[in-house]
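ping. complex inputs:
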Amino acid sequence: MRNKPHGPWGAAVGLVVLHLLSVAVLEPGMNIWPPKVGDLIWRVVFGTQAISGFGLIILALALVALSGVVTRRRGPLRLVLGAGVLAMVLSGAVVISTALDYFQLRSTLRPESLVAWDAGVAVPLVMGVLAAMTFLVLAVGANTALGAMVSADSLREPRPGPGLIVGQTPKDDA
Amino acid sequence: MNRIQQAPRAFVVALYVAVAYLVVSPFLYESQRLLPADPTDFDWRFGAEGFILTAVTTPLIGLALGTFLAYLRGDTRGQRVLAWTCLALVVVLVVIWVGFLVDLQSMVRSVPAEAIGIVKATAFRSAVGAATAIIALLGLSIGGFRAAAQVAGSKQ
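pong. complex structure:
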């Protein structure tokens, strides 16, 4: 069976993705509200909370990519390519800034609480690095799928006109 | 014919069971916290509504994957069952969502002034998350019914 684009399907996937993104933003967002950008502890907590929302964003992008591949539409794949690169850069920036902030914060913490803090920040940082790599892989995968679609389409499309004989130029043909 | 249509039946059944697990498990998990049930108790009711509204993300993912699987298989019965499940969940969630908003008004009046901000923020998160989930489930239901009709039409 050749899969064709389905209007209702595209809308449904878009709505599911909207829900996933809203939860990915709202859940951690409520834990760090109101923002206190000047506070070092708030910045570290912000980083770890932001990283906790990356899983749902990855799921949302994967769903969009899957729908693009199945329905053979380029729009969703282009979206995943752009959003994947952007998310990779942003997640990388969050991981690096959180790590730098934590190194600064660590010197001010009590020695008996260091182990708990180290574990509480190291795990999200590792997850953040994995998330950044996943965003990159999603973008690369979307790009590869787009390339495959373009080459498949160019093979399918009939060439216009009678065609040229080897050694002949369009002018000669005219 | 695509690969998923050629896949062994046992594999497809296993995928549907995984989908059912994703749909049911969050509600079962939340039910541990909600038992014994006492709908006449305002605190229990408000808490239960909040828990159910925030537990809907995983079932939504399960239903999206299930509908996708049924669509790829060209399984019209599966598509219709999942579309009806989405629709039933929409009806239940809309009732709970409205009840939650009504109870929220009473809750805001009864909590101390310093706690109103936290209650409103938590309620906002639950209400907006559930609203987007309800819209997505409705979209999945409509999409499932239409795709099933298209597949059924192309088979005839």
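Residues 36-150 of chain A form a domain with the Methane Monooxygenase Hydroxylase; Chain G, domain 1 fold (CATH 1.20.58).
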